Amino acid sequence: MFSNEEAFDHYAAARSLRCITDPDVLANLAAKQGDIALRLGRAAVAIELWEAPLEHRIAEGDAPAAGDLHRRIGSAFWHRGETRRAIEHFQQGINLLKDLPPRLELVALYEDAATVYMHAGDNMLAIYAAEKALRLAEQLGETRAAARAHGIFGRIFGRIGDVARARDNLERSVELARESNPGEHIRALLTLGSHLEIAEADYARAAETYGEALELARRLGDAPAQVELEAALGVLAAYRADWTALTAHADASAGLAEREGLVGKLAYPYALRGLLCWREGDLAGAEALFVRAHELAVRVGWSEVAFWALYGLALARRDRADDAGALAALDQALEVCERAGLAAQAIQTMAASSVSLALAGRLEEARAAAREATAGTDAVPYPVAAAALAEARAVAAEPAETTVFIDDARTRWEALGRPLDAARCDLLAGRLLAEADPEAAAQALQAAGARLAACGVNHLVPVTVTARSLQSGMDGQR
Amino acid sequence: MTKNVDIVRRALGTEARGGGGEGDLALFHPEVEWVVAREHPDAATHRGHAAIRAYLDEWSSTLGSLRFEADRFVEGADNVVVAVGRVRGVGLASGAEIEIPLALVATVRGGVVARIEEYLEAAEALCAAGIEE
User: Rounded distance, CA A422 to CA A469, Å?
Assistant: First the structure.
């Protein structure tokens, strides 16, 4: 009926009506206004709005309602990046409810606590909390809550590299969610899709899973899920350099988020638009959009998108020859990964730092970074991280072995259906072989130019030509 | 091994460097206080044998093969012993092998454990016990 902005104003107006004096009604109105504030990305406002209803519910002895408000306040603190305070509120809610007969509010508290622990990298406490949530959910015969608990198990297993167990749990979560309600079904599909994309790099199945969720979200009118799913499909399009599909998904995602006032969700489509700007060679525009996307993602505690925005930012800065800025963005991305336990992305980022240094011609630093990135990573379970590590191994290798590792990396990216990443391998070879084998370097740069042109990234093609002519000049001088 | 360390080790049912078994409630003071780690979702202070039994049962109903394994015991002043190790178990629903680093600051009075404080960081536990390493 109303956009979130309008709904927020309506609740504020209702609360200011003098004829409403019933404290229960006022508490409900403030609580609902707080829900909208959080959806609008205004976590501080939401917390302030929920504090009065919380006091009221505690004074009334309504432990379930008070516990649920503690949960909401905890979630809002988490959105602000205040993990410690988030956990404190979950603990207070749990303490209010744990000696009462099992109830859904308690299940939700353990689930949200598990999610926050997981994002904070406390995987063990996350599993413990999710185990408790699942046990309570089973006692209550609540398939929806059980679906969520399996979803959390799946995400944690994914993060600790047990990919098979992760998928089993996430598929179980989808099965249970399908039996419960459509909203939960969408959420479970989104989580499974994300696992297939990030941990397994199975983009065909990820697209199928996101697509199924999007269909459901459209039928249900679930705008936040639609925004996220359109953007997720956009990312898959970006991997295969399908700019038409990426544009369509980015527009659909941004349009819906703007119309619904889903400010926090805009982070994702803004990052996609940043990539589109990069593709057009508008590097300043790309940088501005990635920065904005990162700010929004941080504001709502969305680590995966914060990572993506920083990774894109590094790309834009690298191509603007701002090497220090690119490396700073990658350092920041690594911090996000470490804080949020994004294992696959952390490996990818460390490898990308060494590649960035190499492309900037800082070969000694690049080799040191590559050695650090590849140490003890013989059996990485994530295909994307493994491909990125193959690039880093090329950076660390002696010139005689460079081509072998570059070929390995390129083959891996091609097998994953990521032509832009494959093109970067040729750019990298052009740089790494420039001294030892100028002819091979020139061939690699020519191949990079052809690949980039085929991907429709024309602004980088002249870079490969210039690099080739510089090398020819150097050869002539020798 | 000093007397206090032996009491704590037997009370917790641990063997140094691995092992881990049943603790002995008789070695806890009847009004013992057990302060759960502040990061834990069920953070609280439990008092008396019944509350501690319930707390440990809660752990056991969530994780199978639950045990506390101590790597080392460090003795401080005022009858304080710090047991540094980890809780291990297997998630009953997830099947995940759980290992949570845990350091317990135990205060011994009259031959029994009168207070336990849990810390997830060993350094923090040692600091709380006034032990410098």
Answer: 22
Tell me if A388 sits within 8 A of A347, measured CB to CB.
Answer: yes
Q: What tokens appear for A230 in the block?
A: 């359109």
Hey, are the CB atoms on B41 and A110 less than 8 Å from each other? yes
- Distance, in angstroms, between A92 CA and closest chain B CA? 9
Q: How many CB atoms lie within 10 A of CB B2?
A: 11
Q: Hey, is A97 helix, strand or coil?
A: helix
Render pLDDT for A31-46 as a digit per residue (tens, 0 to 9): 999 988 887 778 889 9
List, in order, residues 6 or more apart from A391 with CB less than 8 Å away.
A351, A354, A355, A405, A406, A409, A424, A425, A428
Number of A to B CB contacts under 8 A, please give it: 59
Contact residues, chain B, for A106 at CB < 8 Å? none
Dihedral sign, CA of A224, A225, A229, A235?
A: positive
Residue-wise pLDDT tens digits, A316-332? 999 999 999 999 999 99
Check residues A475 and A282 and name the one with the higher pLDDT.
A282
ipTM for the predicted complex comes to 0.86
Q: How far is B129 from chain A (nearest CA, A)?
A: 23
What gap in Å lies between CA A319 and CA A468, rounded to an integer? 17
The A residues from 157 to 196 touching B (CB cutoff 8 Å) are 157, 165, 169
